Amino acid sequence: MPHPQTRIVLGGGGGGGGGGAPLALVSLVLTAGACVFLFLVVLAGTRDTSPLDQIYFLRADTSDISGAPEQARWTLWNVCAVTDDRNDCPSPRPAYPFDPRRNFDTEENVPDSFLGTNKYYLMSRFMFAFIIIALFFAVLSLLSGLLALASRLGGALSGLLSSIALFFEACFAALMTALYVLARRRFREDDKEAQLGLRAFAFVWAAFACLLLSTLFFCAILGTGRDKSNRRSSSGAGAGGSSRRRGFFGRKRSNRNRGSFVESESQRRVKDEY
Hints:
This protein has helices at about 5-10, 20-45, 100-105, 120-150, 150-190, 200-274; strands at about 60, 70-75, 80-85, 85-90, 195. By secondary structure, the chain is an alpha+beta fold. Helix 1 (about 5-10) packs antiparallel against helix 6 and helix 5 (about 150-190) runs antiparallel to helix 6 (about 200-274).
């Protein structure tokens, strides 16, 4: 019969098949949702089809700026005109910066706050890099998350990848919010109508929330596996200790019985001699 500790070692390697499987499934759904949200934001501006033609970061009145459309919408790839309340975008350019002076190749009627500074230009360029990296690691976390359904190792790997995606998504969301909220204020200070793209902001922050929860759930898979191992080891140790105690006292009782048997034999011999 195998020793109880041998069974503990063999049973502790698995992880996701028991209590970790529901957590892994929830994490997969959340990660998939984050990937969908990020794809919608990244692809906005590349095609003039629904729903991509309704996603943008900032809309501003640029009718008095030379070379600009009456209404301009900024995406990650370009600045788009507005036709029938939909994006009408030119050819996409990667890491397209937010900088009205560069975007329209003029300083005429551009708000003074956008002139003489590279702050907006640099923030928008870093934004593009952050969201691409976040999307890359989110997709890797989604693929490796399938392993989390069967093992704790898969959960650990997915948790690591998801945490990396979460970090870059947080950087992107923070830069996006700071940049376009500040840009809207600058347009309004120049008596130009401006408003944020609610869909883009909602998708970005929803992706952040999904990645945060999926990272926590992936890490929780490790905790469920450790709890099971501890319970098994404690029960195994208790069974082994009780058997050893029973063996110790059993040997005492058997020795005592053997001693009484010897005493009874000697007493019979004494009686026979008499």
